[in-house]
Amino acid sequence: MAKRRPARTAAVLLLMALLGTACQRHTVYNHYEHTPLSGWERNDTLTFNTGELQEGTYKQEVGVRISGDYPFTKLTLIVEQTALVSRDHRTDTLTCTLFDQQGNAKGRGVSHYQSLFHLNTLHLQQGERLQVAIRHDMKREILPGIADIGMKLTSTARP
Q: Which of 65, 81, 76, 80 is nearest to 33 (CA)?
C-alpha cells in the first residue's frame, strides 16, 4: 500500500496540471519585427499580417524588446489595424511604461528586456484577417534602444 501512494499522488498531480492547462488561452499569432538598435525612425512602420482566424474573441497585445540604451521611461506607439474581410479600421495610441521611477526595467531579461502590453480585446468573424501597422510617436525622430516590436493574438475561448 505504501508503494501505491507515490503513484497515486503523481497521478493526481498530473491530472491537476492537465486541468489547469486545459483552460488556458491559446496563442494564435505571435510575431516580432526587428528594428535597428541604433535607431527606429518615426516613419519606419512595422506591419503584421495574420492568417485567417476562427470566429471568436481575441486578446491583442503589443510586445516591446528594448536594450539598456533606451533613453526614456515610456514609449508611445500608434497602432493602426484593419480587418481585411469586414474592412473595419481602428487606430489606437498605446503608452508603454518600460521603466519604473527608480530606473529599473519593468520587463524580463538581462541585457534586453521584453514586455507585453494589452492593446484591446477583439471579436472577429470566421475567416477574418488582420493587418496591423505600428510606429512610434515620440518627440525624437530616431529612437535608439528598441530591438523588436511584436504583436500577439490570444484566443480567449476555451477548448
A: 65
19 pLDDT higher than 60: no
Q: Cα(157)–Cα(159) distance, rounded to whole angstroms?
A: 6
Task: Yes or no: say if 66 and 126 are a contact pair by the CB < 8 Å rule.
Answer: no
- Radius of gyration for the chain, computed over Cα atoms and rounded to the nearest angstrom: 20
Q: What percent of the chain has pLDDT over 70?
A: 83
Closest CA to 134 of 90, 77, 96: 77
Strands 26-34 and 146-155, bridge-based pairing: antiparallel
- CA–CA separation, 142 vs 151, rounded Å? 21
- Rounded CA gap, 25 and 116, in Å? 15
3-class DSSP assignment, residue 120: strand
The answer to whether 135 and 45 have CB atoms below 8 angstroms apart is yes
Does pLDDT of 12 surpass 70? no
The answer to whether the Cα torsion of 56, 77, 72, 41 is positive or negative is positive
If residue 26 lies in a helix (H) or strand (E), which one and from where to where? strand 26-34
